Amino acid sequence: MIVLGNSVSISRLVLNYPTLTGQTLRYAVATVLLAALVRYAPRLGGGPRPAGHRRLRRQDWTLLAALAATGLVAFNICVLAALRHADPATVGTIVGAAPLALALLGPLLRGCRPAARLVLAAGIVVVGTATVHGTGTADAVGLTACAGALAGEVAFSLLAAALLDRLGAVRVSAYSCGLAVPMFALAALVAGEATRWRLPTAAETAALGYLAVMLTVVAFLAWFTGLRRLGVERAGMFIGVLPIATLVSAALLDREPPSAGQSVGVLIVAAGLAIGLGRVLPARQPSRQIVDAAPVEPEHQQGVRCG
Question: Count of domains in the chain?
């Protein structure tokens, strides 16, 4: 999330380049790099042993295609549409509700009951995110596009979570990025960007390279690794770090300190993260015999009560 937040300032350098064409180039470069990792470091991030997982099932391809279509392509298109009909504050606030959506939907899709502590913590993170972004304005089209971007953000994590145990972070990243390339290319053609095709400038090439390497390869591997170890609802709260990283990066580059309200929002997000990620200790330690006999709960299911 820090990498993503810092990349917002880098993205300013490609504002004049055809957007969907730039996304096609970015994901194409990332796919090549990730394919090399699949070949030489398939277990990066704690993935499964490749011997029994070389062939993808039809269900895997379906989930990967859905991940690329919703979490990558549709998300970016919805954000672009939202920014044309709503200000950045509104977009950031609505998309910033993702932690709460993941805290509720993640356990429900596993047939579990959401943990009250994690739902409360995610709600606090959402409030802090809205405080950092501030209030804004939007028309009906802008609000619809914002809702689509929120759905894409949530789908990105939920669909990946269903694949990570079987495929690992490297393979999920590589296949989803590879599937997104033709989708972005088709979207660029539909948007008429073929008539505006040109080679990127040196600055645009450097920016697209940074976005391909850091924002796609590094950030995807980091996010999927954390998602696999923490679970959807706990990892989702770190989305609240995004506006903080963006705020700090912009303040450093623009040499303008954040406002008092934004600083309060940062503290609220920090409080939500502390509540959600902290461990609740029992009032009394059980006997050693009970501890030894009790099954160890998987790390990604801690804090979730299943019915």
Answer: 1
